[in-house]
C-alpha cells in the first residue's frame, strides 16, 4: 500500500481493506485520459452497448453489425460506451470552527480520516486525486494527478492541516467551480457554517459546470443537543466576539435556529442534486463511507 512508506495516524489499513470491497463511482459521465471504470460522455471501447449508427466511410469495419445488415440491407456500426478514469477533488474546510469537538474527535480529525480514505480508494482504482484546503489565507491547492508519490503529497497536506481563522468557504467554492475545468467528482468535507442560500449558489455553480458534487456536513452532537446546564462563555472559534449566556434562557431559540438552518441546508442540497450527507462526528467514519460507496454502486454510475 502506498501509505506504508510513512505511517499515518489518520489511515487505518484494516478499515481501508474493508472499504476497498466497494468501488467509488461517479454519478455523471467523466472526462478522463486513460481507461477506467467510470462512464464517459464519449463513445469508445467497452462491453456496454450504447446504440447503432449508420456506417460512414472511415469507420472501423470490425464494428459493422452484419446481422443488422442482413435484416435491413444497410450498414450499421455498433457503438459502445467508453469507460474512463475520473478526477477526484477533495475540498476540506480549514477554518477555525473545524477544531471543535465535544468528544475525542474534532471535525478536522473526522475530515482528515474520511478524506484520506477516499483519496486512497480513488488512487487504487486508477483515478487522479487532488486536494484543496480552504482556510483564512489563500487556498492550499494540490492539483489532481495519478501516482503513488502524488498521493503521498496529498496525505502530507492532510496530516499538516491546522484549521484557523474565518471561513472562506463560499468564495473558495465559487473559485474552484471556475478553475476545475474538466468534469470531476468534487467532495466537500466541512461544517458548512455559511448562509444556506449562499451555499446553494455554490452548489448550482458546480452543477452548471457538470461536476458530480458530494458534501459531508460535519456536525458535533453537542451543536444539535445544546446540553449545557450552567452559565457559559461561548467562544467563536473563527475570531468573533465571545458571548456569555444562561443556556436555559436561550435553548429553545437555539434549537429553533439550528433546526431551521439544517432544514434549509438539506433543501438547498436536494434542489441542486448534491449527494448530501449530514455527519455526526461521534459516529464511525467507516460506516459512513461504506454507505456512501454502496449507494453510488447501487446507482451503477451514469450512462
Describe this structure in words.
This protein is an alpha/beta fold and 303 residues long. The chain folds into two domains: 2-29 and 85-296, von Willebrand factor, type A domain (Rossmann fold, 3-Layer(aba) Sandwich), CATH 3.40.50.410; 38-84, no CATH class. It has helices at 13-19, 66-72, 107-124, 148-160, 169-179, 196-208, 221-225, 247-271, 285-299; strands spanning 38-43, 49-54, 76-84, 87-93, 128-134, 140-145, 185-190, 212-219, 232-234, 243-245, 275-280. The strands form three sheets. The chain has a six-stranded mixed β-sheet with strand order 6-5-4-7-8-11, with helices on both faces. A three-stranded antiparallel β-sheet has the order 1-3-2. Helix 3 (107-124) runs antiparallel to helix 4 (148-160), helix 5 (169-179) packs parallel to helix 6 and helix 6 (196-208) runs parallel beside helix 8 (247-271). The two termini are 32 Å apart.
Quick synopsis:
With 303 residues, the protein is of the alpha/beta class. The chain has helices at residues 13-19, 66-72, 107-124, 148-160, 169-179, 196-208, 221-225, 247-271, 285-299, and strands spanning 38-43, 49-54, 76-84, 87-93, 128-134, 140-145, 185-190, 212-219, 232-234, 243-245, 275-280.
Domain count: 2
Sketch the major β-sheet: 6 strands, mixed
Which spans of ≥5 residues are poorly predicted at pLDDT below 50?
32-49
- How many helices does DSSP assign? 9
Cα-atom radius of gyration: 23 Å
Overall outline: elongated
CATH architecture of the largest domain: 3-Layer(aba) Sandwich
Q: Could you give the order of strands across the largest sheet?
A: 6-5-4-7-8-11
The CATH superfamily of the largest domain appears as von Willebrand factor, type A domain
* Terminus-to-terminus distance: 32 Å
Strand-and-helix sequence, N→C? HEEHEEHEEHHEHEHEEHEH
**Care to count the β-strands?**
11
